[in-house]
Amino acid sequence: MKHIHDYKVVDVFTTRPLAGNPVAVVFDADGLDSGAMQAIASWTNLSETTFVLRPSTPAADYRLRIFTPRSELPFAGHPTLGSAHAVLEAGRATVREGGRLVQQCGIGLVEVSVADSADGADGTGGRELMFALPSAHITPLAAADVAELELIVGGKLEPDAAPALVNVGPMWIILPMADAAAVLALKPDFARLAALERRLGVTGLTVFGRHPPSSVADIEVRAFAPSCGVVEDPVCGSGNASVAAFQWARGLLPAAGASYVAAQGRCVGRDGRVKVQVGAGGQVRVGGGCITCVDGQLAL
User: What 8-state DSSP symbol labels residue 96?
Assistant: First the structure.
């Protein structure tokens, strides 16, 4: 007997179809075990597939499990936003007082704010979602690992551009680069990077560099996670959040806080825009638009 699950694919960090990062969202997943979820995530072959379950606490509106094609993640950014969009669109939850949803996932409770977007006037959007990043833990990268990273990116790292490990649930190696052009030109050695990721137990490598003034975005970001089966993530929420936490910790953002826009996805044919807010205490919020591209059912 087939089991039918409502199913959506939501493009995140965009209000235009096919321009952001898609996440597959499977509803009514309480009857699926971990093996079935991993098989579905491998089949969709998207950077992440999520499964919506009943929450185990009244403090949450729903529970979410998040899978890459190869493994489960305790938290991820664009799946959080895309799943919140899907849950609201499907009428599976309503916005709480103060314009928020509460997601339960591997790292605990994550608050998602929901606001109307001006981009919705032309029918391409209408809802802007932002998540509050859990506390980030930042540690320096060991000298031997920095040397290996230099081989991976194909060049000597500048002393004032020292990379670090940023743990926000997923753990990213964060590497600042000279500018946005250097980010766009980067061609990592993916075999070596996958080996480094496995050895360090990290999700992947996220790099960033500044755009010139008056550009459409303030920084360019790219995220690579070959050990997870994602050579390059089109637009990465947790990677961008980690970049924001790294910049604040390194004094690259004003101590009083800042807001900026990151661009990501150009190298894989996308055009994502990520809105980032960093508060005076370093609290990071990341968000953007979402739009559903596939709405149907999954028969298992």
Answer: B
Measured from the Cβ of residue 255, the count of other Cβ atoms closer than 10 Å reads: 10
User: Please, are residues 96 and 87 in contact by the beta-carbon 8 Å criterion?
Assistant: no
Residue 35 shares a structural domain with residue 172: no
The verdict on 142 and 226 lying in the same domain is yes
Does residue 72 carry a catalytic annotation?
A: no
Query: What pLDDT shows up at residue 134?
Result: 81
Question: What are the tens digits of pLDDT across the range 224-266?
Answer: 999 999 999 999 999 999 999 999 999 999 999 999 999 999 9
Q: Any idea what the CATH number is for the domain that residue 61 is in?
A: 3.10.310.10
Q: Is 157 found in the same domain as 123?
A: no
What range does the domain containing 16 cover? 4-132+289-299
Q: Are 85 and 129 in contact (CB under 8 A)?
A: yes
Beta-carbon count within 10 A of 33 CB:
9
| The model scores a pTM over 0.90 | yes
**Catalytic residue (choose from 48, 197, 220, 232):** 48
Residue 89 and residue 95: Cα distance in Å, rounded? 11
219 and 158 part of one domain: yes
- Residue 210: which residues within 8 A CB-CB, separation 6 or more? 179, 180, 218, 219
**CB 84 within 8 Å of CB 292:** no
Provide the 10 A C-beta neighbour count for residue 271: 17
Report d(CA 66, CA 202) in Å as an integer. 16
Q: Which residues of 105-143 are buried (b: 16+ CB within 10 A; e: fewer)?
A: beeeebebbbeebebeeeeebbbbbbbbbbebebeebee
- Residues 13, 118: one domain? yes
* pLDDT for the residue 118: 59
Q: Give the Å distances, CA to CA, from 209 to 152, 215, 231, 247.
A: 17, 13, 20, 11
In a shared domain, residues 149 and 104: no
